[in-house]
Design brief:
3% strand; two-stranded antiparallel sheet; single chain; 461 residues; mainly alpha
């Protein structure tokens, strides 16, 4: 078997062995398996069938990761991207008013465009056109946006007519008798945030997944003891898996409610173009950043700092986006959690194949994924937000013509409740401020074009 793996994945050439690769794959899966819980939770807010999303998330992740092994022989894993799924659900569908079927069509078109970019050198042109400061700011802004969504899902932050948003009131919950149905879940979520943070500080592999599971177990203890009382009228449900169907409960859930449901009726509208561009923009830079960042930690870059076979990796990512849309999920992209497997010694596609197999096995555990409540996944969103926010320390705050546009892009995302608005504001402000301060050497022709397009969008609103 070792010889077969060596012939297929070139193990010796990459100074690794089958055992190391398989352990690396298991490690990567442990760090990113939370997507099986969080992605259905986020996308189901659009009205999509949550059970179908569990199956689709697993299949799209398995297939996308397999593409990476076949096209590039790299140890990187793919799944529906965090931030992109939030943009899909909360901005495109809930804020802009598109149906989730139209949003899937946008993801599919974005994937097709990305395939064309991956076959040419255009991706380098786009990558070089956007200033590095804005690339980092986008990651930071998405981190804050995701964290805000987590706070809302956990009901730690709630709507308030007077102040727009405010902290959850335990006093009010006790007074109106909702503490044991809602208030206690807020307490559990707060504990979950601290628990997940502790696991990250201790550098425990699978920290986000274990944070979700730990919070969920605490919820089950609370329900079993009577401290937590589910009330469907208040949007709180039992946290115990429904196994009443016996062995049938472990049959993968039917994905057909979301498969092949794309709607291209709005494909020629300006807003649809903006949606596609936002998907493409975030996916493009997130993928390139992840590939380069993870590869640099494992000495996979060449002497010029380039990643060999990057075209194959980008092709895997773009094809996975198209197939993911066909299956019924948001943009499938390369996960930065792949760094965990690389740190364990993963160097080839055998690591990716291992991850792919584990995603397929997860299909038979859907009753458990369906039972995990929003207050258990909220800590993961908040902590993932922190991990994305950490890019802020790479922004040069001393150069104000760079820092201010980055700041505008960052704050626009959570405050406008839109990733695309943050991108638009960042590009516009960067171009205008650097022109006014005579730093035109920083601005490419493509940046001028993007600025004009974004300004035109606001004029036509």
């Amino acid at each position: 078997m070792e010889e077969l793996f060596d012939r297929v994945f070139h193990l010796k050439e990459n100074h690794t062995d089958a055992r190391t690769e398989i352990i690396a794959g298991i490690t990567t899966f442990m760090t990113m398996a939370y997507i099986l819980i969080v992605n259905p939770s986020i996308l189901s807010a659009t009205g999509m069938d949550k059970g179908a999303l569990v199956t689709t998330t697993a299949l799209a992740s398995a297939l996308g990761t397999l593409f990476m092994a076949v096209f590039a022989n790299y140890p990187f894993a793919l799944a529906p991207g965090m931030g992109l799924n939030a943009y899909f659900a909360y901005t495109v569908v809930l804020q802009m008013g598109y149906t989730w079927q139209v949003a899937l069509a946008a993801v599919f078109v974005e994937g097709l465009v990305f395939i064309l970019l991956s076959l040419t050198n255009i991706r380098e042109a786009i990558f070089n056109a956007i200033p590095l400061t804005l690339k980092r700011a986008i990651s930071v802004g998405i981190g804050l946006f995701i964290a805000f969504i987590g706070l809302l899902n956990a009901k730690i932050v709630v709507a308030n007519p007077a102040t727009k948003v405010s902290l959850y009131s335990f006093t009010k919950a006790v007074a109106d008798g909702t503490f044991h149905s809602v208030g206690i879940t807020v307490v559990i979520a707060l504990i979950g945030i601290l628990f997940t943070g502790f696991l990250i500080i201790k550098n425990i592999r699978g920290n986000i997944l274990f944070g979700i599971l730990g919070t969920w177990i605490l919820g089950m203890i609370a329900e079993a003891s009577g401290l937590y009382i589910p009330d469907p009228k208040l949007g709180t449900f039992s946290v115990f898996p429904n196994l009443s169907a016996g062995l049938a409960a472990f049959i993968p859930l039917n994905p057909l409610p979301v498969w092949g449901k794309m709607d291209f009726s709005s494909v020629f509208s300006l807003d649809f173009f903006a949606v596609i561009f936002a998907f493409l923009f975030v996916d493009l830079f997130d993928t390139l950043g992840t590939l380069i960042g993870v590869a640099s930690k494992s000495n996979m870059l060449d002497e010029k700092g380039r990643l060999p076979h990057i075209k194959g990796a980008l092709m895997a990512d773009s094809v996975a986006t198209c197939t993911g849309a066909l299956m019924g999920t948001s943009t499938v992209t390369t996960f930065v959690e792949s760094a965990a497997g690389v740190a364990e010694g993963g160097r080839t596609g055998l690591t990716a194949v291992t991850v792919s197999v584990l995603f397929l096995l997860s299909l038979f555990l859907s009753p458990f994924f369906m039972a995990i409540p929003a207050f258990a996944t909220a800590p993961a969103l908040i902590v993932v937000g922190f991990l994305m926010f950490s890019s802020v320390n790479k922004i040069d705050m001393d150069d104000l013509s760079e820092a201010i546009p980055a700041y505008i892009a960052i704050i626009a995302m959570p405050f406008c409740y839109s990733i695309s608005e943050g991108i638009s504001f960042g590009v516009i402000s960067y171009t205008i401020l650097n022109v006014l301060t005579r730093h035109t050497d920083r601005i490419s022709a493509l940046m001028y074009i993007l600025t004009i397009l974004f300004i035109g969008k606001y004029i036509m609103l």
